Amino acid sequence: MAGKERNVKVKIENLHKTYPSRNGEVTALNGVNLDIMENEFITVVGPSGCGKSTLLNIIAGLEKPTSGKVYCDDQEINGTGTERGVVFQQYALFPWLTVKGNVQFGIHLQGIKGEEADQLAMKYIRMVDLEDFVDHYPKELSGGMKQRVAIARAYAANPSVLLMDEPFGALDAQTRTQLQEELLHTWEKEQKTCFFITHDVDEAIILGQKVVIMSARPGRIKEVVDIPIPYPRNQESKISKEFLEAKNYIWSQVYKEYLEVRK
Amino acid sequence: MEADTPLRKTSEQKVHVKSNLSWAERIPSKGWLVLSLGTAIIFWTILSFIPSTSRSFPNIIKVTESIGTMIQRGVFWSDIASSLISVLSGFLLGFIISLPVAVLMAWYRPIRLIIEPWIQFIRNIPPLAYVPLVVISAGVGRTPQIIVITIATFLTMSITIYQGVRNIDPTLIKAARVLGAKDRDIFLKVIAPASLPFIMTAIRLGTAIGLTSLIAAESTGASAGLGMRIRALNNTFESSSMLLYIMIIGIIGLIFERLVKLLERRLTGWQEKKEM
Q1: Which residues cross the membrane (chain B) (predicted)?
Q2: Which of A154, A233, B75, B90 lies 20 to 30 Å from B127, alpha-carbon distance?
Q3: B48 and B76, same structural domain?
Q4: Are residues B71 and B134 both part of a single domain?
């Protein structure tokens, strides 16, 4: 993996975003520059309100930047596109569709129908280990299962970039670790460019090849830290020397930002 | 696994304590229904014995007998049929009009800003108040009845559906968009199914409003109907027949509610359970 020559997949250039508010404008992003390489797994940490989600929404094409540009495969991003999939923290499953219906949603929109769509959906349902729940509705699933369906749904549309906005934030610690491991396996098998937002430093390190630390308002990138832990990773990687070093360093940096916000 | 055992024990204890305390939970819901009905009949009977209320509440035997009287007069079934026709066609028309209006209001801000105040304004006026105006233009007979019920049901249903469409979780629309949905797909595959529960609520409210505006609708010079008959019986002080007719309106309401619930269970069973 590391030896392969990589192209820049997503290029973020001098991104600014301000929102109007009652007392003037609020700056969410203030000059963000970042290159995301092909098949790279990037995680983003930072205090709440640092503009992480805004950044993700702009890459997804769900929001427009005030100034600056984002390119995906050298094409300027203008709106959403199926090459960029999103997994939301609130799962955002369609409650009136079964697990299969949800996973097929994007497949159907691409004009794939019938048997072929079924098989494709089943492939991704199996990937997240939910073949026993194909015909269940979201209300019958636990939080962890719902998020697995959301991941399968995003994968099934076959994006080359996967954007994840604190996808495990609402889950209990045990389920979260389990899903982290599953996501690692999936990414190791079927590589995609991943942009993963979290407020959990451990999660950022165990998943990412690089951890992007964002600074408090106005949001910009403070530092990008390489994580030299080799893949395949698992929970035991969390007791390695590299992990603990990275954790100490990143945590102290994030903590500084946190104090900054409190001032 | 070890942690499982004490957990189970506490939960068993809880169940035990509970079943000791709440005898109420051991009566099935059907049993409660019978109990509720029984208490109502007891109250009714008491009212029929108290001198000051006995003239308004003839006892259950007299009321049951009045079914025969009304059938003999040849009005019983035609009254029920006439009211059902008015309520159902008025409701249906109101529903058909409210759907597109609600969607347009949710979709286009100018349309909402112009139309919503009208609806809110008229909604607070009791239908009985504008009945004379309807009669002046539409004359007497079936037409004004249907118009009155259409207006009343439309006002409530359009607001209910519109609020439902506005309250659709925006992340669902975002999720659809990133999966490649265009405006048309979002309307057909997200907005439409997501508003179904609100449409069902609107139907439930609509049928109820249709029934409650029946008296007003049938005061337009109707020749038959439950509401019209109650007013006519008032002139001859036939309280047992009046009470019978009032109860029939209530029973029809319950049947409507039941039917809507059945439909709801079939169409929106996917919803997270919300206790009513």
Answers
A1: 32-50, 84-109, 121-140, 146-165, 186-217, 237-256
A2: B75
A3: no
A4: yes
**pTM of the predicted model as reported, rounded to 2 decimal places:** 0.81
Residue A116's contacts (CB-CB under 8 Å, 6 or more residues apart) are none
Q: Which long-range contacts (CB under 8 A, 24 or more apart) does B105-112 make?
A: B105/B158, B105/B162, B106/B162, B106/B165, B106/B166, B112/B162
In total, how many domains does chain B have?
2
Tell me chain B's radius of gyration from C-alpha atoms.
Answer: 25
Beta carbons of B175 and A92 less than 8 Å apart: yes
Here the tokens at position A53 are: 């989600």
Number of compact structural domains in chain A: 1
Q: Report yes or no: A48 and A216 within 8 Å, Cβ to Cβ.
A: no
> Quick check: A9 and A160 in contact, CB under 8 A?
yes
pLDDT, mean of residues A164-180: 90
Q: For A78-114, write each residue's pLDDT tens digit.
A: 999 999 999 998 999 999 999 999 999 999 999 999 9
Write phi, then psi, for A161 (nearest 5 degrees): -120, 130
- Chain A interface, best mutation among B169, B178, B189, by max A CB count within 10 A: B178
Nearest-Cα residue of chain B relative to residue A61: B178
CATH number of the CATH domain containing B90: 1.10.3720.10
Closest C-alpha to B162, from B126, B221, B213, B117: B117
Co-location of B47 and B181 in the same domain: no
In a domain, B273, yes or no: no
Residues of A in contact with B267 (CB under 8 A): none
List, as one string, the DSSP characters of B180-237.
Answer: T--HHHIIIIIIHHHHHHHHHHHHHHHHHHHHHTHHHHTTTT-SS-HHHHHHHHHHHT
Mean of the per-residue pLDDT values for chain A? 90
CATH code of residue A204:
3.40.50.300
Domain membership of residue A59 (yes or no) is yes
Q: What share of chain B is helix, strand, coil (3-state, %, to 5)?
A: 80, 0, 20
Q: Is residue B276 part of a domain?
A: no
Shared domain for B71 and B207, answered yes or no, is yes
Closest partner CB to A84 (pick from B178, B181, B185): B178
Torsion over CA of B153, B159, B162 and B164, rounded to 10 degrees? -100
The verdict on B30 and B12 lying in the same domain is: yes
For residues B250 and B244, what is the distance between their CA atoms, to the nearest angstrom? Answer: 10
Of B177, B196, B268, the CB nearest to A80: B177
**Structure tokens belonging to residue A237:** 């990687």
- Segment A53-69 mean pLDDT: 93
CB B161 within 8 A of CB B104: no
Does residue B165 share a domain with residue B79?
A: yes
What is the torsion angle, in degrees rounded to the nearest 10, for the CA atoms of residue A240, residue A241, residue A243 and residue A248? Answer: 140
- Note the Cα B221 to chain centre separation in Å: 25
At A255, the pLDDT band (50, 70, 90 cuts) reads confident
In a domain, residue A155? The reply is no
Q: Within a domain: residue A124?
A: no
DSSP percent split of chain A into helix, strand, coil, nearest 5:
40, 25, 35
Residues B237 and B175 grouped into a single domain: yes
Give me the helices (H) in A84-232, please. Answer: 99-109, 114-127, 143-156, 173-189, 201-207
Q: Are residues B38 and B100 in the same domain?
A: no
